[in-house]
Design brief:
- The protein contains 9 helices and 10 strands.
- α3 packs parallel to α5 and α5 packs parallel to α6.
- The longest helix has 17 residues.
- The relative contact order is 0.18.
- Bound molecules: adenosine-5'-triphosphate and magnesium ion.
């Protein structure tokens, strides 16, 4: 499904900040696989996502998504192939639009005919059904502005939006970092449910070691510009959060 082949990527080229971020990095993610990525601050995890979404180009190597080189796909079509949820709940939604309008945009992502026809009953029923999975009462607030939602509610909406139209890969970058522990737990459990139920292929970055142990088919450690370790679900059963964090020098 996704293949990164011999990737070299340097940021800040030609400036004082020039720094290699990824060096001869390889990755293969199978269809319907859920892979967790961990690593220290500045290790290059978000950069890796920007590479996969085609926002950054490598100096060397290829990013192949469903047999297509991502760097050669036009931006409009890339939006349909790759869904992203970021750490900041404000980034995934447009606050001066309603929940309905935001979801309609997500639903039509990658299509030419944006925003039409988003008020049909069928679509409203679908959006309400998806929102009811959150158990936050958002299904009754379709006509409310996103600006009126809390950070946790916005992040939950972003997650539903990112998984509304079936993209080839879903990239989740520290999606629970800004949330209180209870909501963070709800969102993580829901993430797992949606990924498995919808049979999505997903890469998720987290700094939460218990989550890195509990979720995903395997967990990869990004360190020194490449993946240094891989823990399969069976391996993770024998690890503690402290052991996992030690892999990239947290302790
Ligand atoms: N435009 C840029 N020019 C130079 N260096 C950059 C640029 N953008 C990011 N960097 C550096 O690249 C490195 C990797 O950044 P990245 O955001 O990918 O890290 P990360 O693993 O996501 O970290 P965190 O866990 O803190 O989110 C960092 O040292 C960052 O300062
Ligand atoms: Mg990051």
């Amino acid at each position: 499904m996704l293949r990164l082949k011999n990737i070299d990527l340097t940021l800040g080229q030609g400036t004082k900040l020039e720094r290699p971020i990824l060096k001869n990095l390889n990755l293969e993610v199978a269809l319907h696989e859920f892979v967790v990525v961990i690593g220290g601050n500045g290790a290059g995890k978000s950069t890796l996502f920007n590479l996969i979404s085609g926002c950054l180009k490598p100096e060397k190597g290829q990013v192949i998504l469903s047999h297509q080189d991502v760097t050669k796909i036009p931006a409009r079509l890339r939006a349909k192939d790759v869904s992203q949820v970021m750490q900041d709940p404000r980034l995934g939604t447009i606050e001066n639009m309603t929940l309905m309008e935001n979801m309609a945009m997500a639903y039509n992502r990658g299509n030419k005919r944006l925003l039409i026809p988003f008020s049909t009953k069928r679509r409203k029923d679908l959006f309400q059904e998806k929102l009811s999975m959150l158990k936050m009462g958002l299904e009754g607030r379709l006509d409310d502005l996103v600006a009126h939602l809390s950070g946790g509610q916005r992040q939950a909406l972003s997650l539903i939006m990112a998984t509304l139209s079936k993209s080839k890969i879903v990239l989740l970058d520290e999606i629970t970092a800004a949330l209180d522990p209870k909501i963070a737990h709800t969102i993580m459990a829901l993430t797992e449910t949606i990924i498995r139920k919808e049979k999505l292929t997903c890469l998720m970055i987290t700094h939460n070691m218990p989550d890195a142990l509990a979720y995903g088919d395997r967990t990869l450690v990004l360190k020194d510009c490449k993946f240094t370790k891989e823990f399969k679900a069976a391996d993770k059963k024998h690890l503690t959060a402290t052991h996992l964090a030690a892999e990239f020098g947290e302790f």
